[in-house]
Amino acid sequence: MKLVAVMSLDSNREELHRMYREHSIQVFSEIDIRGYHHTQTPSAVDVGWFGHASHPAYSTLTWAFLPSDQAEHLLDAIAELNHETDPKHPVRAFEMPVDRSI
User: How far is the CA of 33 from the CAs of 2, 10, 18, 61, 92, in angstroms?
Assistant: First the structure.
């Protein structure tokens, strides 16, 4: 089992929900996020995610517990999506192993 977390700009929310339906992900959790930065450091510019302190960037974080093969297929689909979208605002996703759950 894997814990898959996906962070993207809010404008990608419906596309991600469609992708979850297509990959038979029936249950996931989601929260809204406001991203800020106080300086325009090179890393903030490169990532392209964070709004200025007075104008935050709105994004979303979803996560789901998935079987390993389903997690792999979802991450592959997200990588494909990133090839089709704005490279300065990619969808960020990662998986973590779930060794034990209660």
Answer: 23, 9, 20, 7, 14
